[in-house]
Design a protein that fits this description.
mainly alpha, 0% strand
């Protein structure tokens, strides 16, 4: 099982890269933020907060399964956000 520290880094890097991709899209198309791009960024930040809160939860019975589930959720959230970026 990867460490909690590495899981937090993965969450930070993945969602940070998604936000960076949105900024690159903004710069290469319209040069300014739109409502759709702001919504994607807000969703990424909300997802980050929710995942970090789950990682920091102390009252977990089976930590290994809990962290594995968080990793699965991260993959799902990331793929949904990437699909939204590609649809722009």
């Amino acid at each position: 099982m990867p460490s909690v520290k590495n899981l937090k880094k993965d969450i930070n890097f993945v969602l940070g890269d998604i936000i960076e991709a949105v900024y690159i899209h903004e710069l290469t198309t319209e040069g300014k933020p739109t409502e759709k791009t702001n919504a994607i960024i807000d969703e990424a930040i909300t997802s980050f907060d929710a995942l970090i809160t789950k990682v920091n939860a102390k009252n977990v019975e089976n930590k290994k399964a809990h962290f594995k589930q968080i990793n699965v959720e991260l993959e799902q959230v990331a793929s949904q956000l990437v699909e939204k970026i590609n649809a722009l």
